[in-house]
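Human:
Class, as today's exercise, you are to examine the entry below, and be ready to discuss the fold:
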Amino acid sequence: MIEANKPAVKLADDQVAYKQIQGTEDYNKTIKCTYFLVVLFKEGSGIHYVDDKAFPIGKNQLHFLFPGQQHHWVTGPETVAHKVVVGRRIFESFSSMEAFHFIRHNLKPVFKLSDTIFHSVNTEMESIRRDLEVLNEDASWKKIIQIRMDLLASMMKREAEQYIRDTLLANSSPTVKKFWNLINQHYSEQRIPKWYAARLAITPNYLNMLCRRHLNITATDMIHQRIMQEAKNQLRFSEKSVKEITFDLGFEKMSGFSAFFRKKSGFSPTEYREL
């Protein structure tokens, strides 16, 4: 269930909360967060520290914070921002997590939005705030909140994918780009870096080194994230049974697919489908 219209002391996994930030605020989350946080700064100054790295706060900025990270911000007096806190269960239900995974591992939590994109994201933030107020009086409104969160996630995903395409991959080695393309072609049949390395005419260790150097994740993790993206999309948006999805993704047994999916998401395929 999705509920609450202001941040709770401890946000439940199935809650979404909203708060408006105005003026100076000194907030320090000294323990690792268990939720996903997105903040849209309409106006602002100050510093946002994420895992001890400093990011200046400015106008038309979108800031992310992922489960497991720590953060601290000190905002300036002119600051006006929307803050949406998302429980981990809701966060996991976002339709496409692969782009967020790359952002998380490369510590890119701040995006400067164009005026057009800012207006669209700001409108969704306002709608989430309004709909959470309605939810207090009508529990059936939780489905509307879920749709709002999917829309917001799609907008954030767009910014993340543009960063991956135009910055991460553009500045990485040609071999990493080829590896990325091979994964997209063969992830349902091949899950071992050795197979990809052979086609790139390099050793698995060197492929892994390149992935760590340019994307800050392992070659295996890249493959697994692509499989998880497709698994989540099929579970949410197709009528296929878990058994059919299992074989589509190249797993021989449902138990193997279920164990893989639970390890990566914290949910069984059936539980995820019901989120």
